Amino acid sequence: MLASRGAEIHGLTGFFAILDSVGRSHVRSLRDFTGSVRISPVPGTCVIGLQWGDEAKGKLVDILTENHEIVVRYAGGSNAGHTVVSGGQTWKLSLIPSGILRDGVACVVTGGVVLDPASVIGEIDGLESRGVTVAGKLRISDRAHVVFPWHVAEDRLLNASVAGGEAIGTTGRGIGPCYRDKVGRALAIRLGDLYRADFRSKVEHIVGIKNRMLAAWQTADGGPEPLDAADIHARYAAHAERLRPFVTDTTAFLLDAVEAGSKLLFEGAQGAMLDIDHGTFPYVTSSNSSGLGVSSGSGVPGRWVNRVIGVVKAYSTRVGGGPLPTEQDNATGQRLRDRGNEYGTVTRRPRRCGWFDAVATRYTARLSGVDELAVMLLDVLGGFDAINICTAYEIDGRRVTQFPSHVDDLKRAVPVYETLPGWPDELTTVRDYGSLPTNARRYLDRIGELLGRPVSIVSVGPDRDQTIFIDRTGSTPCPKPKSRTPATT
Ligand code: GDP
Ligand code: IMO
Ligand code: MG
Questions:
Q1: Which numbered atom of ligand 1 lies nearest the CA of 339?
Q2: Which of 27, 77, 330, 364 is the most exposed place for a label (fewest CB within 10 A)?
Q3: What is the CATH number of domain 145-246?
Q4: Which pTM was predicted?
């Protein structure tokens, strides 16, 4: 699967040498057996959030795009909000991969994504109005399931009462209901269906059923107005025309690209703790947001993804319901929120904040086959006298380091902390690992030790420039930007 090859990795150079040799052996064996297929040695890098989302994946993807030709979004929908800051400009992206800000890069929204057409059109217009070229760079899968007004209505009606208890606190973007219809099949519409002759009759059929369902779900406070099939059809037909130049079979495009030796970068949305199968169910999103979703969402077999970067914040945040074991619902949490500007990109809800949780992130790093770590927002921890890392949970008096599979156990988990000394310094101007305060390096090293992976990238501010690439061997690490001019500066 996502390749953690089991080899001991001494710095990134050694790591890439291993990948090269692994890749070459693939090439050899494919040629031997088929005589025709050619696969490049290292085609795929993947960026996965290891917490509850908002780990600054967008910033990292924007930087790594320099060394890739195609950036691929494989899951989620307009619940995602990715912020990229460069040259004093801030970009907020949701469905379009963060790679769009660079010239000469193809961006792909695959069939694993649930697509709200109005939302993606708004993004395209917003980017183009600021001088970013989207036409010719963006491809959207005809297999992507489409978010309709009934999905948004269902999301808003059901969110409050789910699981009979605490609300999931969804983003209200219709994500769960759209994925539910995808799996249910009978009431689903994919982007490619919008261009077929029976699109109108499909909408009429589904609206008839959805209006009866929505009426049954109404509460004493009322509910949404009945849906109007003709109006919805007219709006979505117009959206379809607008999106026509972008819609294609992205699976075929990506498989061709892999065989042509293109370098692919997969952009995770949400975080692995929100994975529908392996996260803190039911307080999760409705897709495989861990590394496990890459190949089902994109159609690219996992064996071609051979560099997996796990992204973490230097502390924990969560937006919405569900347990956050290390949450600091106190002055410490407020300080993290203030320093980290922890308010949701999509909904502006205040994010819940707490200490770094090594039990949760070790689990998600293993789950996603992570090779190396990027630790983001390290600057936010400046000025704390002492910093806690959760290294185990106590559940009913028992100490555990394995992440609980049932959310009720997680709700009772009391974090066991290791306390490290803090550092008074501001880190935002530091640009190399050696110039970080000793205690900041100690903190990073401890995270790497606890998660069993080296920290190779550190972020000390939102800007592209505020990034440190760690070279533990004295030789050049991979992601140093090349000279290609960013489209946005
Ligand atoms: P994503 O959803 O994982 O792409 O993350 P978001 O963009 O939703 O949230 C991350 C936030 O942190 C954004 O506002 C970024 O601009 C900001 N950010 C990224 N890296 C850093 C950093 O190193 N330090 C600080 N202070 N902010 C950062
Ligand atoms: P990015 O890509 C943080 C959370 C919601 C809610 C739960 C389910 O920016 O990291 P949904 O609308 O998906 O049904 O909501 O998942 N959530 C996110 N939290 N970052 C995200 O995306 C999120 N996408 C969904 O807050 O708790
Ligand atoms: Mg976000």
A1: 26
A2: 330
A3: 1.10.300.10
A4: 0.90
